[in-house]
Amino acid sequence: MIFFDIDATLLDHESAEKKGAIDFYKKYADELECSENELVDMWFELSKKYFEKFLSNELTFQEQRRFRIKDIFGYHLNDLQADNIFNNYLILYKRNWSVFEDVVPCLVALKQQGIRLGVISNGNYQQQFEKLESVGIDHYFEHIFTSSEIGVAKPNPSIFQKACMQAKAQLRKSIYVGDRLETDAIGSNKAGMVGVWLNRKKHKSNSGVKVIHSLLELTSIETER
């Protein structure tokens, strides 16, 4: 069985987030004391900072969204005001959801080979499923597991092990594919899976894990069906 990460593996999250932030800036430019580029950089920084706090259970999913907005607009905002502003960003972000060009051909080829497919993702189940559904690829996956459901986040070995157990997939014969070397490839390797690093940008590394540069390379990998 092959499991996939979602953001930056299947879905071009970075592009969607950047375009969403640019559109967000245009909507709120009169209220912001920064340039478009500064807002985009700030958005990426705050997104990473507070999402990590969500993954470590320091903040709820909604709280990490609120803190991003309050850091930008000020802590005079109440929670409802912050939620409303974030929802406006969310609309713009969702408009830009799209998959990489190699995603659908890869999934089609793997399904034709009779290979079972699943997802293991850090994040909120509802939003992650919505992403897959919105871009039209949810039906390729038998199981979709997220950290919000499992209770721990990647690279904790438990999320990989519990996902395989619930999917009735043999851990050591299952493959996990993701764009983050430490979190995805090395993390799943340590859990007992075959970790594969999707290195789209061809960064150099001597990690020892299997590396691919396109999802289409998965069609030649041997795995349990």
From TrEMBL:
Hydrolase keyword on record: yes
Domain of life of the native organism: Bacteria
Biological process (GO), any one: small molecule metabolic process
Molecular function terms from GO: hydrolase activity
Keyword Magnesium: yes
Keyword list, A-Z: Hydrolase, Magnesium
Signal sequence region: none
Names of required cofactors: Mg(2+)
Pfam entry (one): HAD_2
Database matches in InterPro entries: HAD-like_hydrolase (IPR051400), HAD-like_sf (IPR036412), HAD-SF_hydro_IA (IPR006439), HAD_2 (IPR041492), HAD_sf (IPR023214), PGP-like_dom2 (IPR023198)
Database matches in NCBIfam families: HAD-SF-IA-v1
Protein name, as recorded: HAD-IA family hydrolase
